[in-house]
Design a protein that fits this description.
By secondary structure, this protein is mostly helical. The chain has 17 helices and no strands. α6 packs antiparallel against α13 and α11 runs parallel beside α16. The chain is globular, with a radius of gyration of 21 Å. This is EmrB/QacA subfamily drug resistance transporter.
Length: about 475
Amino acid sequence: MTTLTTAPTPISTGVPAVTPRSTRRWVALSFLALAQFLVMLDASIVNIALPVLGEHLRMDTVALAWVITAYVLPFGGLLLLGGRLADRYGHRRLFLIGTIGFVSASMLAGLSISSGMLLGARAIQGASAALLAPAALALVTQLFPTAADRTKALGIWGAVAGIGSAAGVLLGGVLTAAIGWQAVFFVNVPIGLIVIAFIPRLITRDPATTRTPLDYPGAATITSALVAAVGALSAVDQLGFLHPLTLGLAAAAVILGAAFVLIERRTAAPLVPLTVFRNRNLTAGNLVMLLVGAAMVALFFALSVYMQAVLGYDALTAGLTQLPLAGALVVVAGIVPTAIAKVGAKNTLIGSLVVLAGGLSWLATSPSDASFAINILGPSLLIGIGLGGAFVTATQLSVDGITGGEAGLAGGLVNTSQQIGGALGLAILATIATARTGALEAAGSPAADALTAGFSWLFLGAAAFAITAAIITALLARLARKSLA
């Protein structure tokens, strides 16, 4: 059992063990991971296409920011509801509904002839991803019920998801340069259609379950709270921390979040039973994913801008420089199951987070005239190693001890942690970097040096998130040992 110290506290669901969902589960896993790849890819692939897209659809800077926000808001806000709907109505069913919606919205986005049409399509993409992602992870936990096989499966899952995050910059540059901005959306269509065609043949129909009443007040408050939280974090980057809209959304998120906790404590069938957090592995996995997501999203944003605005790389070259990082991530994700078996999940996770922090700190030393081979390649490899180990192990912990009736909830929680973490990290670290750059420019520093110094602070902040995650993992493991003493 891959635990922090001992076997986790199981979450009782009263659902009996189910028969295997597939006779070709490793093949099924490849298609589920492919769908998760698309979800992760779409969070970053659009970035490089934004200038060209804005020119064609006559969108200004504020409108272009909404191309990203329109996807992130429904995705982050609806994940918990999506996970619960999957538990209630069937994981395969919700996965296919989400994938069909995602493919349809991608086609609509690529065909957009106006900004309104594009933003609407992006919102549908995000809502569909919120159905798809937790259902997919739930299916993985059902396909691989034993600890050893599940760890291997999540190693593959983590590698593919990590590649999706890293590949966005590369594919965005290649597709935009070779075909046009529409290609960053159309690329989802053939891949998604393949997934839709094969999953029904590889995974059995959802078993009949007793449908408990859906917690509508809880669903409404947590969805509104998450949308407000993601909206507030997105507004920070555009409007600042003290703008009335930012403060209003933040206050709404806090109030709605508190209301949600009160509702969940009193309702007979809660959307998110608060008892799930008694599972220390689930709690640790989600906290680590929150912080790793904060570091990862800010990192990929800053690397793309640093290489193009400071080092003068074009979009394609900037994308190609991500290959060593992605390659290291893939290799490490594949060997994480072996590491967990030998040294345990706790040590694997802490070691990965320390390596990640080391790579980010090293990257922070890069000058404004950096050489890729001398200044960036080494840190990129360490970052890839750290991300691969941390992403896979945190995902493993977040679903450890979860049975079928709560699998969608667990998938929704870990994906929500990653999305909220990404928005939080980008808002905080981008603000810090911008303030540092502005101060140096005001003092007369050259623009390239000022930008580099700002990004240096951002990379150090991301390293601090990784170290914090390592400390939390160690503390939770220590508390677990004390409770058993």
